[in-house]
């Protein structure tokens, strides 16, 4: 088996002395002395968010999806992740809520969750005609690559694809879809280790890993939703994307089918033992196996 993922040590003086430690859950710092603007971001992780973010990034690699790079990080006594900016100097990130508001000025930009107009159809309309991310399939365009993002969400059980967790990168040569980013809310990371262990062993069908996976909800809604409507499950969002873009969806499903089981296991096994419990390792693997079967056997 490959060695554990390394940990990036953030310099002790990375946070300015005039800032109070603990008041920020993330901060930018320079990769090289004098770098302006700084290109590295340290994010202090809630329990299990460090390994889930890292594993998700490695799984995105297996699908050949353009994504923000993540490393396990440590700043003083805090654990988290370190990521490098995918926005080059002179470029800006336009979040999805801003993109959707350009299409419809009445779109509820300020409502991060529960935005009923945040639908697969509206996202595709907003992305129509834009290029895909750097490093992505050249001929697919933004819509086609976003189909891959939704398959990825369905596979890992990502419930955090709200309208500020996707966007466009604006540069001198026009706009393109941003790499996928912020996937920590996945793989059962919010469960305590004892709860994950219990779900792995239970005979109660309401408490199994599979039941947990089926209850996941994304931040995308069915078209025409009214107040009180539940968000789509990540699998249902992917299925809607497949209906709209069947050829592109077939491509991404074939990619998922071809991923080697051993490489999936290594993505999880390479997390250091002091970052992840044995129960979370087994739970994450069961989630991935179950969701891949649901996607590929449709």
Low-confidence stretches: 17-23
- Cα distance spanning the termini: 33 Å
- Count of helix runs: 10
CATH class of the largest domain: Mainly Alpha
As a whole number of angstroms, the C-alpha radius of gyration is 19 Å
CATH topology category name of the largest domain: Phosphatidylinositol 3-kinase Catalytic Subunit, Chain A, Domain 5
> Structural class of the secondary elements?
alpha+beta
Strand content: 5-15%
Question: How many extended strands?
Answer: 8
Mean pLDDT rating: 93
Spatial strand order of the main sheet = 1-4-5-3-2
Counting structural domains, the number is 2
Largest sheet: 5 strands, mixed
Provide the helix percentage.
Answer: 25-40%
Topology as H/E string? EEEHEEEHHHEEHHHHHH
Q: Shape from CA axes?
A: globular
CATH architecture of the largest domain: Orthogonal Bundle
Quick rundown:
This protein is of the alpha+beta class and 298 residues long. It has 10 helices and 8 strands. The two termini are 33 Å apart.
């Amino acid at each position: 088996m490959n060695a554990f993922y390394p940990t990036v040590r953030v310099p002790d003086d990375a946070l300015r002395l005039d800032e109070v430690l603990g008041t920020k859950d993330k901060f930018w710092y320079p990769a090289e002395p004098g770098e302006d603007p700084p290109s590295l971001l340290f994010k202090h992780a809630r329990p299990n968010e460090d390994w889930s973010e890292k594993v998700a990034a490695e799984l995105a690699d297996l699908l050949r999806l353009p994504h923000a790079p993540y490393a396990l990080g440590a700043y003083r006594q805090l654990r988290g992740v370190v990521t490098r900016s995918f926005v080059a100097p002179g470029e800006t990130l336009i979040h999805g809520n801003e993109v959707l508001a350009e299409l419809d000025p009445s779109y509820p930009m300020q409502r991060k969750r529960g935005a009923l107009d945040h639908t697969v159809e509206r996202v595709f309309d907003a992305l129509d005609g834009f290029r895909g991310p750097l490093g992505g399939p050249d001929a697919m365009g933004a819509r086609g690559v976003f189909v891959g993002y939704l398959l990825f969400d369905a596979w890992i059980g990502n419930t955090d694809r709200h309208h500020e967790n996707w966007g466009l990168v604006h540069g001198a040569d026009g706009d393109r879809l941003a790499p996928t980013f912020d996937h920590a809310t996945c793989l059962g990371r919010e469960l305590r280790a004892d709860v994950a262990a219990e779900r792995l062993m239970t005979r109660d069908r309401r408490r199994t890993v599979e039941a947990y996976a089926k209850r996941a909800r994304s931040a995308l809604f069915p078209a025409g939703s009214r107040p009180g409507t539940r968000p789509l499950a990540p699998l249902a969002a992917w299925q809607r994307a497949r209906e709209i873009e069947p050829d592109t969806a077939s491509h991404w499903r074939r990619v998922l089918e071809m991923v080697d089981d051993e490489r999936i296991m290594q993505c999880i096994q390479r997390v250091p033992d002091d970052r992840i419990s044995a129960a979370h390792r087994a739970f994450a693997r069961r989630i991935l196996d179950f969701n891949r079967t649901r996607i590929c056997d449709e």
